[in-house]
From TrEMBL:
Organism listed in the record: Kribbella ginsengisoli
Protein name in UniProt: GNAT family N-acetyltransferase
Amino acid sequence: MEPNVGQLRLVAVHGGELVGYVDLAGSEVGWRELGYVVERWRLGLGSAGARLGLVCGFGVLGLREISG
């Protein structure tokens, strides 16, 4: 199986435990779709993960657009 080069997955760790992940996926230049999964609710982890995905996408990867 070939890796999906258009997808970046960031893992979410809270208290030393894996609690979810954030994906930036897509094949168009300058654009990715953001999605996330969290195992624990009401801790703000989904919001924090989404913010991290945006920071990584725009700041590190230099994307022009992120949708979700």
